Amino acid sequence: MERHIKGMANHWRIEILLCIANQHGISVEGIIDELEGNDKTIGEHIRRLHHAGLIDKKYQGRSVRHTLSPYGKKFVSFLRSFQDI
Predict the structure, then answer these.
(1) What are the distances in angstroms from CA 54 to CA 24, 29, 61, 66, 85?
(2) Distance of CA 85 to the CA centre of its chain
(3) How crowded is the C-beta side of 59, counted as CA atoms within 13 Å?
(4) Which of 37, 7, 44, 5 is nearest to 19 (CA)?
(5) Is the dihedral of CA 30, 33, 34, 37 positive or negative?
(6) pTM to 2 decimals?
(7) pLDDT digits 0-9 by tens, 50-64
(8) Does an H or E element contain 57, and which?
């Protein structure tokens, strides 16, 4: 549990999780474009989210597609519950 919570404990990581939830199978480039962030910063946050077990990566040739893991889906649901308040 601690690994998952620490994995999302950053505003960029929260935005990335929500972006992936909205666009299943999005690439790193798509996330960078959507969030208008620095490629190295976004790439590092994606790596940490993957390490925390919150996102899955699927390699398709030279491209990598990102989806939420089962834990990632639960955390996005948790995050969205706060948006409704």
Answers:
(1) 13, 19, 23, 10, 24
(2) 22
(3) 2
(4) 37
(5) positive
(6) 0.89
(7) 999 999 999 988 889
(8) strand 55-60
